[in-house]
Amino acid sequence: MQLSIIIVNYNVRHFLEQCLASVRLATRGLQAEVLVADNASTDGSLAYLQPRFPEVQWLPLPHNVGFARANNLALQQARGRYILFLNPDTIVAEDTLQQTLAFMEANAQAGALGIRMVDGSGRFLPESKRGFPTPTAALYKQLGLYRWFPRSARFNHYYLGHLPEHRTQPVEVLAGAFMLVRKAVLDLVGSFDERFFMYGEDIDLSYRITQAGYCNYYFADSTIIHFKGESSGQHSLRYVRVFYQAMQLFVQKHFQGSGAFLYRGLLYAAIAARACLSAAGRLLGLSVPQASLPAAISWQSEGWPQQLSQPSALLIDGQQVPITWLNEPATAQQSALLLAPGDNFSMKQAIDKLQQAGQRPCWIHLAHTGSVLLSHHKNKAGLSGEWIGDAAPANKS
Description:
By secondary structure, the chain is α/β, with parallel strands linked by helices. The protein folds into three domains: 196 residues, Spore Coat Polysaccharide Biosynthesis Protein SpsA, Chain A (Alpha-Beta Complex); 84 residues, no CATH class; 92 residues, no CATH class. It is built from eleven helices and 16 strands. The strands form two sheets. Strands 1, 2, 3, 4, 5, 6, 7, 8 and 9 form a nine-stranded mixed β-sheet that branches. Strands 10-12-11-16-15-14-13 form a seven-stranded mixed beta barrel. Helix 9 runs antiparallel to helix 10. It is globular, with a radius of gyration of 21 Å.
């Protein structure tokens, strides 16, 4: 078996449906298996998705065991020479897996590989390539200085802002949203450390891979969509606390002596400053924006098959939202854009269109799926819905 793709799901069935549909296309011609560990979802994920994707190995877990533990349980059943840890809120292009596997085969010192990612509005996600969280890098991130100096090697070392986003190159840290690792390397260094609750487990694994003498690579010759991006609420005190706990665990594992003492001191200072900024933001009404439910949707479609009827509405959060399909050109203020890759319109083309859309909201729907996704702001979790009316046919194996 060449490749095992491991996905952990928790209550994101529509995002996972689009992800699996894209993986189905990207694994054509490969010896690949897909394993989905479901962390006791309550949104009907298994009942909805299992009939649509019979080729997937489903691992229903009795309760939510967390991201790292669920990945590790699936890894025990994986047979591939390469392991791809993939988030359920991602969409890959048709050639993504072929290209990344070819790169790994051609570069024996590559222990793991990450990829260029854009959010649901087509904007580049800086976490696609990162540096190790040294004391100063973690401090500058927590204080937000990296936003003021995005291309600085000093102030934005956390996101390696000085390195070009369109160049494949070695980096220090890969994002767990797309992390392709040699199975032999995982056998050597171990998989995710289950002590990390959220954040940090990918940093820790990346560090252990480099300590074993391998390189981590950022791959820029293919692009995927990662809908959530940084939508985990970075203005919230909870995010600051969890990030700090992850960094504290990281330094306890990998740094000793005076360096560790300095690291903890700087993190304490950063956490206090970030907490004050978070509190001030809430007082000023600067909380993370939430996606609002539209009363109606007007959109133009790119790629919708002519032989398929056009659904009349979407069911979003239990509410029926009517759809108007526009045939004439319209502005971004007048309509959204529905990107519907299928037989005559590739996912790769859809990703290109997404990056060119600017401020225009873009919905994503892969052919033969029953759902559609929207995320046009990197700090919004996005919307998802199911077709009502003359819906597209169900997935085909």
